[in-house]
Amino acid sequence: MQTVSVAVIPGDGIGIETVQAARRLLDRLAELDGGIKFAYTEFPWGCAYYTQHGEMAPKDFLSTLRSFETIMLGAVGYPGVPDHVSLWGLLLPIRRGFEQYVNMRPVRILRGVTSPLRGRNPGDVNFVVIRENTEGEYSSMGGRLHTGFPHEVVVQNTVFTRLGTERVIRYAYRLAAKAPRKRLCGATKSNGINWAMPFWDEVFNQIGETEFPEVERWLTHIDALAANFVLKPDVYDVVVASNLFGDILTDLGGAVMGSIGMAPSANINPERKYPSMFEPVHGSAPDIAGKGIANPVGQIWSSSMMLDHLGRQDLGEAVMTAVEDVLEEGRVRTPDLGGRSTTNEMVDAIIARLEARFR
Amino acid sequence: MQTVSVAVIPGDGIGIETVQAARRLLDRLAELDGGIKFAYTEFPWGCAYYTQHGEMAPKDFLSTLRSFETIMLGAVGYPGVPDHVSLWGLLLPIRRGFEQYVNMRPVRILRGVTSPLRGRNPGDVNFVVIRENTEGEYSSMGGRLHTGFPHEVVVQNTVFTRLGTERVIRYAYRLAAKAPRKRLCGATKSNGINWAMPFWDEVFNQIGETEFPEVERWLTHIDALAANFVLKPDVYDVVVASNLFGDILTDLGGAVMGSIGMAPSANINPERKYPSMFEPVHGSAPDIAGKGIANPVGQIWSSSMMLDHLGRQDLGEAVMTAVEDVLEEGRVRTPDLGGRSTTNEMVDAIIARLEARFR
Ligand SMILES: CC(C)[C@H](C(=O)O)[C@@H](O)C(=O)O
Ligand SMILES: CC(C)[C@H](C(=O)O)[C@@H](O)C(=O)O
């Protein structure tokens, strides 16, 4: 019996609802399988905690989390707490503190889902974005001078290190080398951002040339690449992008998939020195929080990636097959997909499919 | 008779073809109208010039351009010349040197065009992106330390000044105040980029609150905003964005419009102290350059914006009506729109419409 210790941070808004949903599914799956068990410890950190304690989590939260095998996160952020406080107080320090330098975000039109793109059907779009997750444009380095005066100047440093750039690009090449068409596209903007991005391009080409000559590689400026996600999303296997560019591309990818409520992500520390973290791409969605109608697929798909990471690809696949079966049947759908079902009804339907499979 | 002095920089690749096309159209229009005349001076600057002279343009090119009323630019950049050389040697210095701090980029599905978005038809999507055009992420400030060593660090500074931020945001509010629904959306990323973007948000809210209380305003993170361009592009009147975010959003907008070959832009110095510059959003497109099949609409639409800027909105509108009539008739279309026509055939068709109108 494999017992997995899971730190659970539901966070804010719909995060609380989708995490609850995914836990229910994981527990039933574990029962059905019989070979795995999840030992959860839940941490009530986030914006509610902040309003009581003046911080998003206790000061030692990283050392608390460190002993867990894996982390499940819902969503962080809520009106009343400035975003740059809520995120820099919890989510971003975890990504950095645990060297989760790979943020893996699949873009795939699931069976049964209508993409907002004309003529793009399930199976047509299926690739992975590897987002750098620890440095780049989210450096937290910068400052303001002459605050409030007409001559005020604000500087933010984008910082790329060779180590940080090489490790994520190398990871992306490894993945691309296993992809059907062995293709890797790098997101750049070396025409406008004249120090950081030419460096990125250099590393991208160096590693490709010397270590992965069998991978077809090309660089595309982020503006054109965003347009291509709409115009020809079928040409990609793996896309590697800096922190900010990956952030933008994956929300856009979520849109192409039919709803950002379905996009998953895995924050991975490939060396497994620290726990990895699994969270949907969507935010806390204050507008629908508390209504029980959030789409649980983003969280569930993220949990399926967690199962992959734990060496149980068989279970990860079983979960996604069940999800796609439910979507394809089309009877149970949350409002973002044009239906009227609740989060719980959706999870029930997915669990029923899993039960049928294990029966 | 209004005689307009136009500095023409065809630039590289298809820029040469689309500028030629737009000039032909403007000349015929001037003949038909009888009240305006264009006096062109063409400058052969760009990557071909660079291969001969080791620079994109003569050192004094800004003072040469300065005496013109307006500038028409095709596209800059070509394989063999690194992008950060070609752009920083011509396009970007013009935007900066002439304080063209407003980059206005309409996003509209033209009559007769099929958007790649399911169920979005002409008339459904019609808004303007105001992109900051002189500072921000394209600062050119930064550097590299320990080049090539494992401990290399590369820094790029994003720089926002209060002056630069206020002036573009104020311009956007003015435009929004005249829009049908009086709406302004600001693109931000204050949750991840923790110095520059909270400052941007502050200015956005300050100006809205004190100077434009009648305008409905809201901020959206760039990741969600990119997704919204696909999921609900109908909610926008005016979007204001930093240099990089505006760049990404407008290529995406071009995709939503059906082809980036059609997206126009105006680099405006609102104070009219310096010439403004009109150029399509698309690049030099080496893959189709020289074939005579580039879509001229981006360049022609940009010329229509030039006519607006010169106080001849009547002519600007006449041009766009002719363009839309041709697209709607559907007989003449360049390959990017699924047709087989040449650039010249398309221009001929548009000119024929204009002639019919003036007859
Ligand atoms: C060529 C490049 C520097 C330019 C930009 O990013 O500004 C282009 O993409 C544009 O949108 O005008
Ligand atoms: C909340 C925010 C800081 C975060 C990010 O930009 O990384 C989110 O958008 C994401 O994509 O995980």
TrEMBL record, chains A, B:
Spell out the Gene3D superfamilies in the cross-references: Isopropylmalate Dehydrogenase
EC id: 1.1.1.83
Q: Which Pfam families match?
A: Iso_dh (PF00180)
Molecular function terms in GO for this entry? D-malate dehydrogenase (decarboxylating) (NAD+) activity; tartrate decarboxylase activity; tartrate dehydrogenase activity
**Keyword annotations:** Lyase, Manganese, Metal-binding, NAD, Oxidoreductase
Q: Which reaction does it catalyse?
A: (R)-malate + NAD(+) = pyruvate + CO2 + NADH
What top-level branch of life does the organism fall under?
Bacteria
Q: Which residues form the signal peptide?
A: none
Tell me which cofactor or cofactors this protein depends on. Mn(2+); Mg(2+)
The segment(s) forming the Isopropylmalate dehydrogenase-like domain are 5-350
What NCBIfam families does the entry give? PRK08194.1, TTC
Sequence similarity: Belongs to the isocitrate and isopropylmalate dehydrogenases family.
Specify the protein name: D-malate dehydrogenase (decarboxylating)
**Record organism:** Symbiobacterium terraclitae
